[in-house]
Amino acid sequence: MLPDAPSLRHAAHLLSTDAGWLTEQHDWLTRTVRALPGTGFRGSAAQAAVDRMHHLTAPLHGPPEQMLRVAQVLSMTATLREELDAVARRAVLAVERIPGAEGLLALLLKDLRALGDLLDHACARQVDLLCTSIPAEDPARLGDTPDLGIDAVHELNALTSGLELPPDVRLLEIGGEGAGRLVAAVGDVETAASVTTLVPGVGSSDPAGLPVHLDRARTVAQATGGAAVLWLGYPAPTGLPQALAQEPARAAGSELRVFQQELARRHPGQRRIVVGHSYGAVVAGRAASSGGGLYADDLVLLGSPGAGVGSAAEMTLLGDDPRIHAMTHPVDPIRLVAGTHGPDPTTPGFGARVWPGDREGDHSSYWDDPVLLGLLKGWAQKNPRASSE
């Protein structure tokens, strides 16, 4: 958190003053060195000394200019922070005249705090760019902005995404290497007792399908009473032929593992459930079978063509009483390609706890299955951890 507006203005004033003093010192040194030959200080050795002093004093021209640019950034940040503070004060005064508007005020102040946090982040990032020779990369993962809250992360991502998302959605990740990275949350990730991460499969990177995936996340969030994350952190295969490949799942599994680790770092007291659907089950299996394991209390493999492993024993979940579950509807055509990415997780020898689900359900109806939703609710609310935050 940056200082308040008066402190920012004071820092900008000090930087500007010191920059002026350094400029004067640089000019004086330059004039002095240039005047040396006129004093009789001549000869090859003397000229070499003068050239060396020119070389040493020349870099002193840069810092004052750099300091003035930083001072400008601090001044602009102070002005914007004053405007945010003024809006907050006006909102409080306005709501005091409207009975029953306290809830609206709380939401508004929450949004203003998120904008303030984003302003702090942007100021710090700009100062880093001005003061270091290494260009800062735009954040691509949730862990790239560890000091920002979820609302501020959403505001930052919304600035560059160009997406028009519903107001109940928080954008956690966007862009990054390769097309298709989009991670969004429904529900309050900051305060929820549980977070269920949904990992879709084939064709899920198509923007046209985003509303359907968000509706599924809403259904899960409502069922569990917690938050749900739509994890599209990888360029998903566009069709069944591409879904035969192992490498996309392996690379995506690494990204999913990093994301879940960041969730656990931010809120260690939450229960975490990961649900991999179709090819997303392969991704989740890969995440749990390498890199030290997956931060999840429950891993659910839905309509899975395999999990990229030979058995549940090859997967590691980092959670309290971790469990691996599997469900494939009886008429789900995924059964026809079972074994493509390892044994069918619903077979007895695999080692997962198998649930029957809807007898008439198909490959896309899991999110309407009352059996699955009831199970998710039970897992999300079982033995909540005491918050250690």
UniProtKB/TrEMBL annotation:
Pfam families: Abhydrolase_8. Gene3D superfamilies: alpha/beta hydrolase (3.40.50.1820). Residues 178-338 form the DUF1023 domain. It comes from the Bacteria. This is DUF1023 domain-containing protein. InterPro entries: AB_hydrolase_fold (IPR029058), DUF1023 (IPR010427). It comes from Corynebacterium humireducens NBRC 106098 = DSM 45392.
